[in-house]
Amino acid sequence: MTSQSRTALQRHVAFGLVAAFALCTACKSTNESRPTEPDPNSTASKGVTARDVGTARIEPYAGRWESDPRLATQLSALEAVIPQALAAAEEKAGLLALPGRGPVIRLVDAGTPGEGAVRLRLVDGVRRPVVPVPARRLVTGLFTPSAHFAPRLAEGALLSSAGEQPVPDWLRAGLPVVISGTLEHRLHERALAGDAVLLTEAELFPETPSGDDPLWAATRLNALQRTGRGERRLARFVTLLLAGTPEEAALREVGIHGAEFLDAAADTDRARALETMRAGGPLRVISIAREALRNEDAAAAATASTLRAELESGTLSPYLATEVRVVLAELALLAGDTDESRRLLVAAQADPDHLLRPVHAELLAARLAAASGERATAASLYRRHAADHPDSPAVNEALNAIGVSPEIAARVPGVAADLVSTDPRRRGRAATRLGETGDPEVAPVLRVLAGDETADVRRLALAALALAVGEAATPDLERGTRDTDAEVRAAALRMLSLAAADGGLSRARELEKDPSALVRETAAAVLAPSRAAKRAPGSAVKSAVKSLGTSPVTPTPKPAPARTKTTVRPGISTPSAAPSPKPAPSKIPVAPPVKPPVKPPAKSVVTPTVPPAAAPPSRPLGGAELPPPVPGRAERSPTPSPPPTKKPAPVKTPARTKPPPKQQPKPPRPPAHRTDDERRKPPPPRPKPPRKPDRDGDGGSST
Prior knowledge:
- This protein is mainly alpha-helical.
- It has helices spanning 3-33, 70-93, 135-140, 145-162, 169-180, 183-192, 201-204, 214-227, 233-242, 247-253, 259-277, 282-294, 304-313, 318-335, 338-349, 358-371, 375-388, 395-402, 406-411, 415-419, 424-437, 443-449, 455-469, 474-480, 486-499, 501-510, 517-535, 539-547, 676-680; strands at residues 51-53, 56-58, 104-108, 119-123, 126-134.
- α2 links the parallel β2 (56-58) and β3 (104-108).
- The two termini are 89 Å apart.
């Protein structure tokens, strides 16, 4: 193995270890920073608390959808509809909700007993109408406050006003639609919201034996208002029926001669409504286009020009115009025109009150994002659809868009459900499990998760991607350094510096001015080794040796040069190089030393000689440095002069600093009591003072 391949292998191993460490750290921080998942069976009130809105009351809810952020928006819309719906019930039908007996709004999950129709129930000992609201349909947009909730409130007001009196089925089914004014919406919804387009009158207005079809009953009440006589015809008729009056008698009270006449008028109203919908023939063209799109038939493109002309004419109702936009968007996507498809779909979704197929529009948006190369957006839309509609056949389509093959789903059990989950913790767990496989085939799935809407999932996906494919994840890591989240940028930069050294250094220099302090610190840490190597060329070698776990060889320090013995001329006393040990204290008292008298130095014979070329350095005497000899002055002879016979004349010498006297150790104090023998002993001899040199430094004088 060459040195280059060995270096690449070492860097790849280190890169994998750092990626694994980042993966574990990110997973741990994700688990610590996020709260635990709420228990769907918990009875504690978390998302929805009890509140009173006028005479109505909203009960607390802590079910499956209480943590969904869309629930708060839908509840606000419900609260806005409550006073309007109750006021319309009182004005149009004379249904008055008494205080304390108004409707109770209860959010329910699928499969909950009583999730269907409105019923009278005992609430705190009082019979009140309970209006169930399906939480899943409310959150996903299938149960709209204006088109579906308002009729249920009107039905509750009807039951509350009736009390113990039974209400005819047809009146209970049709009156809420008339009071809420949702007949047109319900008619278009029945015609277009299903898989097939309904075109005939029998399909749109089926007559049941009990007459409890909402649209059939609603057209009958509309015919009563149109053909009856007197003021507030509908309110009078409803009041008479609730009071127990037979239907024929109640009809005569409002000026209608029999039920046959009323049914004939209702048939006329149904025909007119159907003719209005069929104006221009858009229903049949929409039916042809949708059938062709369902079968992926190329003949669907032939209907595009007709539908576009109908839309541009401006004669379509808002419901038909929105449906035509959805169909045209699907046709444009089939033709490969993603820009035109997106424009039409956005216009259709901008009018949610008239959008009859919201689920289909969501799926179309996901397919459009996948066709445009926006895999992360497509995955998010597919995940939302799979979570909102677990039984939808489009779940497999969502997995294919994310990139989960059957082999990967079988190799990592449960990962498919985690990937299509809306819980970011489950998606992060899926990224961790996929990265631990070390299989490069999971790279497409991890790249989709690297564009997730949650920052923690993106961070985990980048670490898992680096662990799975190694240095091949360099482009993904480089994109990660441009993420909107600071922690993602910092983690991606750390791994990029190992995957591509030059690219990591270049990107680190750019991120030194990042707004986040964490990213700036990471960039400085990445750049520190290269800058230290430039300042100290040997630091790179030391770092390499340190990384191998050994310490560099340090040079053996040279011993201090031994101090040579100084040659002292005779007659000159030089202090020893090593300090003499202090004398041990003696029990014999020693008298204090007497300073000897200082006598003038003896006269020396001066011999005029020329000083040598290189005079020896002066030696320290008594701890002081002697001055060098003065050029031109004669050197004094080292021979000691004989003792003078008479008092010599004082010789003038240049003033020089007297060396400090050497401090003598203090003698120990004598004991307080001495014996007679100790007193008779003679004192010890005095120590002789050291010989002092003369003033010229080359001789000594005797005392």
